[in-house]
Amino acid sequence: MAASLILTAGVLGSTALVAAAPSADAATACPSGAVCIRETNGTILSKNIFYSYGYHNLSNVTGNRVVVNSQTGGAGFKVCLNYGGTNCSSVTRATGDYAPYNFTPINSIVLVA
């Protein structure tokens, strides 16, 4: 994430104000209303951005990955060992980044209202 930078410099008795606004890098930001799975390098592939409630089967998602919950209204997610959204964890509702899950045995993710 880029941090805001405000630099004030005196130039021959005058003051210049330069501001760089923070910008979310589209490759690493999870859009509002979605649940995302980050790649090991921190990027988020479009195939790993989920908006609709229900289960989503995963393909080629292995190793330790961070899940980001950017859903609104208290919506949550579950990670599941089986395809089809079965054999799942309990619902997680807080927004933000979660500690990495080992996705090697995980085959689906479920978005819940």
Which descriptors apply to this entry?
Gamma-B Crystallin, domain 1; 113 residues; globular; disordered N terminus; four-stranded antiparallel sheet; single chain; mainly beta
Describe this structure in words.
This is Peptidase inhibitor family I36. Keywords: Signal. Residues 1-20 form the signal peptide. This protein has one domain (28-112): Gamma-B Crystallin, domain 1 (Sandwich). With 113 residues, it is an all-beta fold. The two termini are 29 Å apart. It has a four-stranded antiparallel sheet, with no helix packed on it. Helices cover 0% and strands 42% of the residues. A hairpin with a 2-residue loop joins strand 1 (5-11) and strand 2 (14-20). The radius of gyration is 19 Å and the shape is globular.
Helical content band: under 10%
Overall domain count: 1
- Across the major sheet, the strand order is 4-3-7-10
Order of helical and strand elements: EEEEEEEEEEEE
Low-confidence stretches: 1-24
Average predicted local confidence, pLDDT:
82
First-to-last CA distance = 29 Å
From the spread of the alpha carbons, the general shape counts as globular
Strand content: 35-45%
- Give the radius of gyration: 19 Å
Assign the CATH class. Mainly Beta
| Biggest sheet architecture | 4 strands, antiparallel
- What CATH architecture would you give? Sandwich
Kindly name the structural category.
mainly beta
Kindly report the CATH topology. Answer: Gamma-B Crystallin, domain 1
Count of helical regions: 0
